[in-house]
Amino acid sequence: MKMFLISDNIDTYTGMRLAGVEGVVVHERQELKDALDKVLADKEIGIVLLTEKFGRDFPDLVNDLKLSYKTPLFVEIPDRHGTGRKPNFITDYVNEAIGLKL
To answer: Which Gene Ontology molecular function entries are recorded, alphabetically (predicted)?
Structure first.
């Protein structure tokens, strides 16, 4: 099973290539769709890493993928600029999910 990166910047792509993860750099919605079609056609790919920017810019596309496919697993990762989430994102998520204040 392989991992594959779809990134919006060359720095994240370069870092992941140094770690042995193949990938592509895309910027436009159609480029992202084309890259995803290519990934979905390759049955050896088990995990697809997407930079968080795609989740912010194209939430309908990314959320649909996460809900529609069991494999590959789609994971959003922060890029070199850090995460776009609030510092207490996980605590807020848990509070909302179970209804308890931590």
So the answer is: proton-transporting ATPase activity, rotational mechanism
Spatial CB neighbours of 39, under 8 Å, sequence gap ≥ 6: 4, 6, 45, 48, 72
DSSP 20: T
* pTM of the full structure: 0.77
Short-list 41, 54, 44, 53, CA closest to 22: 44
User: 16 with 49: CB under 8 angstroms?
Assistant: yes
Q: Which residue blocks in the chain are alpha helix, DSSP H?
A: 10-18, 29-41, 52-57, 59-68, 89-98
CA dist., res. 34 & res. 39, Å (int): 9
Question: For the segment 33-68, what is each residue's pLDDT rounded down to a tens digit?
Answer: 999 999 999 999 999 999 988 888 898 999 998 888
